[in-house]
Structure formats: C-alpha cells, structure tokens
Specification:
Elements lengths: L3 E6 L26 E2 L8 E7 L2 H8 L7 E8 L4 H9 L12 E5 L20 E8 L6 H8 L4 E9 L2 E2 L8 E3 L3 H7 L2
Parallel strand pairs: 3-7
Antiparallel strand pairs: 1-3, 1-9, 2-3, 4-6, 4-7, 5-6, 7-8
Length: 189
C-alpha cells in the first residue's frame, strides 16, 4: 500500500535527503526509507511538503495538470493595495512566463504560526502585512517573484496547504502519515 507523508518543513531545510554540506535535509527529520518529495520548497520557505513512496502519486501530486491548489501565507513588506492584490488575481507577467490568476487576500498573522529562526528583518519605518495567496502552479520562486513584481517583497513564506492537506497540527520539523489514501486516488484521476 502506498504511503503519503505530510511534513512541516522548517526554514533552512533543503527538500532532499542527500546532504549538501550546508543545510539540514529531510533525512534529519523523517526516518522513513524510499519516500520522495512531491514538489519542492526553497530552503528559505517553510511549511507543507508532501512525500510519498509511489512514483505515480509523486508525479501527479506535483504536476500542474491536476490543479491542486497550493495555499501560502506570505508576509510582505509594505501595505497591499487593491491594485497590487488585483495584479496577483489577474496573473503576473514574470518575463519568462505569465502566472495563472491567483486568489489573493489580506489576512491577519495566522494564529498557528510559529516564530521563525532566524527571525525576519524588522524595519521600524516599513510596515509588513500578511497575504493569503492560492496558486495552481508552483514554479521556481514563483510566489516571491509575484509579490515582488506587484511591489510587495516577500519577507516570510509559509505553504499552509496543498489541496485538502494542511500543516494544521504539525509543528516545524514534525510529520505524520496521512490516512486519506482513497482521497489521493480520487483527486488525482
């Protein structure tokens, strides 16, 4: 039977099991053999990472064709305006591609959020806000590039959910096995 692992990736951890000599890796947190990440998160991003031992699931979970929404909590520098949020909602021209339209809204700091180590830079004269951003894609540094393009540089990026799976109940560095195996098959048909 295939396995699906939900992991709350801490800041500074790379999304691989092999050691690069600079960062913590998945092997420092997950003592399970023969599982692989379905998608990636940059070392400086945090939050939900799904891993599986099923190559077909791995491909389907990470492929944009299956349109699993990815929900991010993004702390940005500055005050989001209607124009900047609408820019995210319409799709952003990043030069090498135009993003699909996103769902974007201002939110309060998420109550289940943990302190980041190291903390983000703080500048007294520059406000920060939180945005919830839901996208269908997941290209390299896409969310950071999108927010920067609309004038809101990302300070902290946390993926809170992929499709129906979330980090709820998982502290940074914790993982659990999902019991929703039937749901995977249903979602990825």
């Amino acid at each position: 039977m295939s396995r699906l692992i939900l992991f709350n990736k801490p800041y500074g951890v790379i999304t691989q099991f092999s050691d690069d000599g600079k960062h913590s890796t998945l092997k420092d947190f997950i003592p399970i053999a023969d599982i692989y990440p379905a998608g990636r998160l940059d070392a400086d991003s945090e939050g939900l990472l799904i891993l599986t031992d099923d190559g077909n699931w791995q491909h389907r979970l990470s492929h944009p064709r299956h349109k699993l929404p990815k929900t991010y909590w993004v702390q940005v520098e500055g005050n989001p305006t209607d124009d900047s949020l609408n820019g995210l909602r319409k799709g952003v021209d990043l030069g090498d591609f135009v993003t699909l339209p996103a769902k974007a809204r201002i939110i309060e700091e998420p109550p289940i959020l943990w302190p980041r180590n190291p903390p983000i830079r703080f500048r007294k004269a520059i406000p920060t806000k939180w945005i919830e951003l839901i996208i269908q894609e997941g290209k390299n540094r896409q969310v950071r590039r999108m927010t920067a393009k609309v004038g809101l540089p990302t300070l902290r990026l946390v993926r809170s959910a992929i499709g129906p799976w979330s980090i709820k109940g998982l502290r940074p560095g914790e993982w659990r096995e999902s019991e929703d195996i039937d749901l995977v098959e249903k979602l990825l048909k």
